[in-house]
């Protein structure tokens, strides 16, 4: 896809929205790791948080390639819709592992939905679609792993 000024803005907005979702997930997993007793689950959650941080860097690189600095990057419209992780954080305070896992499942399902919306919008170029698809696949795998724990 050849980027015009308008399509570039749309692509940046879409990628920024995904970054917001990833930020929420990173924070969510970090919080979840602090509240679970099980060392194995804690390790997994910290790994998922690290993975989200890497995904953020990948998307920021794409935004930079489009000519926008990501230093002041805010969330796009997709990110504004995604407050699932923040809203479910209260379920962590009880330290109930099952409730925490269920909250993570809810967060991942919301992230997957937003990733699919981003791909459906058809605003990204081939390399961006490739990165977003790879990240989506990884998030879907994470969701499967988490569901096996519950």
Describe the structure.
Helices cover 77% and strands 0% of the residues. The protein has 6 helices and no strands.
| Element pattern in H and E | HHHHHH
Would you tell me the structural class of the helices and strands? mainly alpha
Measure the end-to-end span. Answer: 42 Å
Stretches with pLDDT under 50, minimum 5 residues: 73-82
Question: What does this entry show, briefly?
Answer:
The chain is built from six helices and no strands. By secondary structure, the protein is mainly α.
Question: How would you summarize the topology of this molecule?
Answer:
Blueprint: H1 5-35, H2 39-65, H3 77-81, H4 84-88, H5 97-120, H6 126-149
Features:
150 residues, 0% strand, single chain, mainly alpha, 6 helices
């Amino acid at each position: 896809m050849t980027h015009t000024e308008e399509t570039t803005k749309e692509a940046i907005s879409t990628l920024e929205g995904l970054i917001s979702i990833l930020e929420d997930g990173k924070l969510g997993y970090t919080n979840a790791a602090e509240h679970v007793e099980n060392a194995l689950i804690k390790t997994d959650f910290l790994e998922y948080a690290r993975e989200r941080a890497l995904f953020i860097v990948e998307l920021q690189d794409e935004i930079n390639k489009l000519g926008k600095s990501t230093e002041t990057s805010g969330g796009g419209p997709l990110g504004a819709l995604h407050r699932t992780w923040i809203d479910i954080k209260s379920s962590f305070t009880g330290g109930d592992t099952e409730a925490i896992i269920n909250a993570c499942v809810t967060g991942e399902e919301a992230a997957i939905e937003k990733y699919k919306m981003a791909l459906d919008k058809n605003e990204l170029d081939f390399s961006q679609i490739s990165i977003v698809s790879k990240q989506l696949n990884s998030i879907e795998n994470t969701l499967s792993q988490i569901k096996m724990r519950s």
